[in-house]
Amino acid sequence: MNFQVTVLKILVSYPDGFALMADLKRDMAILATSGRDWAERTKRLAARVPVLDIFSQGLIERLNGGWRITEKGRAVLEFMEARPAETTTESAAPAVDPPASGPAGSPPLAVRRSSRSQRLQRRRAARERARAKAC
C-alpha cells in the first residue's frame, strides 16, 4: 500500500478535505487490511507520479491536529486517476504539475470516488450524528 496515495485518497473523501489524525489512522487501518486490491491500486496510481512527496510538494497541509488536502493535491490526484487515454503520454507528463484541463481544453476531470470511500464517508457521517446526539 502506498502511504502517500492513500492519504490523498482519504483526505479527498472528507468534507473540505480535512481529517483529524485519529480519523486518518482509522481509515488507513481499514484500507491496509482490505486486501490486495487496494495495495495494487495505490501502486498503479503512484506509478503515474514517481516523485510524489505530499509534504514537500505542498499537496497537503497540517492544521489543528489533522491534515487537509490542498488544491494542488486534488489536481495531482485527478492526474493520477485519469485514464491513460485521457492524458498525454506518461513519459511527457509532468512529475507533479498535472494539466489544468483534459485534452483539447476540455474541463478538468472530476474526482471519482470509489464505493469504498463513499462507504467510509457514510460511516463518518453516522459517527458524527451519534456524537452530536450524545451531547
From TrEMBL:
Basic residues composition bias: residue spans: 113-126
User: Which residue ranges are recorded for the region named Disordered?
Assistant: 82-135
Ranges of Low complexity composition bias in the record: 85-95, 102-112
Question: What is the designated name of this protein?
Answer: Uncharacterized protein
- Organism annotation: Bradyrhizobium stylosanthis
Upper taxonomic classification of the species?
Bacteria, Pseudomonadati, Pseudomonadota, Alphaproteobacteria, Hyphomicrobiales
